[in-house]
Amino acid sequence: MQIDLLTLFPDFFTTPLGASMLSRAQTLGAVRFRVLNLRDFCPDRHKVADDRPFGGGPGMVMKIEPLVAAIRAVRAEAPMVRVILLTPQGRVLTQDKARELAQQQHLLLICGHYEGVDERLRHYIDEELSLGDYVLTGGEIPALAVADAVTRLLPGVLGGEGATEEESFQDGLLEHPHYTRPRIFEGHEVPEVLLSGDHRRIARWRREQALLKTAQERPDLLARARLDPEDRRFLAALGMAAEE
Prior knowledge:
Blueprint: E1 2-7, H1 14-17, H2 20-28, E2 32-37, E3 50-51, E4 61-62, H3 64-77, E5 82-92, H4 95-101, E6 106-111, E7 127-130, H5 140-151, E8 184-185, E9 188-189, H6 199-217, H7 229-237
Parallel strand pairs: 1-2, 1-6, 5-6, 5-7
Antiparallel strand pairs: 3-4, 8-9
């Protein structure tokens, strides 16, 4: 997969893309990142990428010409590229969306900035994504989040086909608790079941802990989670029955 990141601040991505899993994924050949400087697509000699909004108001708006020029340049190389604008107005990124994007061969992530982009850009993109109902300084952090969420789902990146199967949101639930050594820390003990060696008991305990944590922290997720009859009996015993 190739992921292009179009930004006014290319240096923002230098360290994150060169560290941890994102670096390893590139070494493995699972993904290739390319950071594109939006100013390289500005037609004027001063490389101006923003201007005052028509109608007045505070702040500046990203100009449409360099944005469309960049999109067309990438599409000339890869006609099937999926072009995504990172903006608070977009659909919220979910694990299901990350899985969908991981099936693509090429993504172009556009980092908005200032007061936003010229509205006409929406005629040239495929979709808009957001991290949530809040405003960040620019689209660089959301673009990095998308790149990370997608890359870790690519085959071999996390070391095996089943490496992401038990993570949060895979089946609509938050993830179960994790523990490691020492067995006892300042009086806080690791649950006995995890030391039992009984893999069936451990699997059921983890499932019930995921159900409990989701019911307590994100009850909204239960309505669309994939629950079996045993899950529903467990929740009912706690007085937390999920909707059918």
